[in-house]
Every structure is written in C-alpha cells, then in structure tokens.
Amino acid sequence: MLPVSLIILLLAMTAAPVSLETLLLFLAGAVLLVVGMGLFTLGADMAMMPMGEALGRKLASLMAAVFFLVGVLVTVAEPDLTVLATQVPGIPNPVLIWTVAAGVGLFLVVSVLRTVWKVPLRWVLLVLYAAVFLLSFFIPRNMLAVAFDAGGVTTGPITVPFIMALGLGVSATRGDPDGEADSFGVVALASVGPVLAVLILGLLYRPDGAGYEAAVSLTVPDSRAVAAVFLEALPHYAREVLLALAPIAGLFLVFQLLTRAFKPKGLARIGVGLIYTLVGLVLFLTGVNVGFLPAGRQLGQALGSSAYSWSLIPLGALLGWFIVEAEPAV
Predict the structure, then answer these.
(1) CA 54 to chain CA centroid, nearest Å
(2) Entry pTM
(3) pLDDT tens string for the chain (330 positions)?
C-alpha cells in the first residue's frame, strides 16, 4: 500500500489538489487499511483456508446443497462486494449483495461438479461467456457495467482463499494425477456467476438508475474530528462484518460437531484466525469507506477536468500495478 499512498499524496500536492480534510481522512484510512488487511490476511491463512479445504474433503458427497450455501455465505461476507453495493444507488444493497451471492453459490456448485466429472474448463467457459454476451444486449447499459464489476469484486480477499481451498479439498477426493490441476478454475467459474446473476436481475428488475454514486465528503475541522469520524463509523462496519461472518462460523461449528475434523489445537487456531479476520475486516472497511473513497472521488474529478487529464492513462497503469500487488487474494 505504500506506493499507492505515495502516488496519491504526490497527486494531491501537485496536479490534483484536494481539501485538507479529505487528505487527513485518506492518511488515517491508509493506516487502518494496512493494519486491517494485515490482520485479515493472517486470519484468512489461519481460519478460512483450513475451513474451506476441510469442507471440500469431507462434504464432497453433499456438494450441491452445501457448496451453494458456502458460496452464498462467503460472498455475503466479502468486503469488496459491500464497497460496490454502497456505490450503486439505483439498487438496494441487500438486493445486489444477495443476487451476487446466489450467482457465486450456484456457479461454485457448477465448478465443483466440473472438477468431479472432469469436464474441460475451456468448454464450460465458452458456453457461459456466450450466455453473458448474449444477455448483455437486452439490459440497461448501467446494469451491464455493474454486472461485470460484480464479477471482479467477488474475487476478493475472503472469497478467493476460501473457494480455492474448497476446490483443493474436492480435487483431493478424486485420487488421480490430474485432480490437483483441475482444482484451478474454481474461482474463474465462480466469478462468472455474479455477472450472469446481475444480468438476469437487469432483465427482471428495472431500477430508476444503476450508476455509481461517489462517496460524500465529510467535514472535519481538525485532527480530533478525523478520529471522531472513524470512531463513529466503526460500530456500523463492525455490525456488518459480524452479520456477514456469523453464518460462516455457524456453518463451520455444525460441521465440526458432526465430523470432528479438527483437533482442539487446530480448532483454537481457527478461532483466533476468525478474530483476526473480524478485526481486520472492520478496520479495512472503515478505512476504505471513510478515508479512501472521498480521496478517490476528489482526485478523479480534479484530474478529469484539468489540463492533466492525459495523465489518467499512465497513472491508471501505475496505480493498477501496485494495487494488484497489494491485493491479498492474488
């Protein structure tokens, strides 16, 4: 995150000046983002990946119902999806989140069945993307953009580790040399599901508008007010994260009671990992929504409407490089 923050600071002090309050919020948000993502990544390694692999190994025979439920619950907990939903004013947040989650759950089942039945990935992708491009001719243009972005946000820091571990667990039950190679592609198929689901939503549900809504800048007269803004936002995002992670933890608890898959030491490690995940996600979402979004809005407006608009192309490439490097799901 350091290169991204330095680039934004350099822009704010030269070609794209922003208000001092937005800059203070950005700096505080960057700190929360780094700490939150660090804790979350540690928690995902300790809890999400072992849980996903164990579920994949033990529940392969019940894959349709269980994997659909797992895909839905993991996607609802995805912080990137929450950020997307809050910026699309034409669709209620729960409608968009649960539509995307249903798409991930359904296509997680498809991807696991493909692994078990040894269907070539290329043919499945060709058929699904043909359906995507066919549907794209019949929905509003704004919904098309939201649909493809929904496919991107579901390849986030919760969904990817959990789903990849699930795929590894399922492929291990095949017992043939090609099983490990076929475990890849699970995320690719799961990310097609949200695109198709939102496209179908666009056919059935016609909102007044589905464009993106930029974050509203907050008024912070001094540094103490900056801290107050973040402290005020923390309970809201803590509640969201708790509601999102509780079903995953509950499902795992039922799984553990039925299978006894983990010994006490491993169970304690997963419990600590879930706490790290919870705290990390709360800090991450608070930092993104309170600090990063207002700064991104002002920088985009300043660069897009100034003589430096040409710089958006090289800056986009540079920022994209470092943002992908910072993405824990990669």
Answers:
(1) 22
(2) 0.76
(3) 788 888 888 888 877 788 888 888 888 998 998 899 889 888 888 888 888 777 766 665 556 677 788 889 888 888 888 888 888 877 888 889 999 999 998 988 888 778 777 788 889 999 999 999 999 998 888 888 899 999 888 777 778 777 777 777 776 666 666 656 666 778 888 889 999 999 999 888 776 666 655 555 556 667 778 888 889 999 998 998 898 888 888 888 888 888 888 898 999 999 999 999 999 989 988 998 888 888 877 777 777 776 666 777 787 788 788 877 776 655
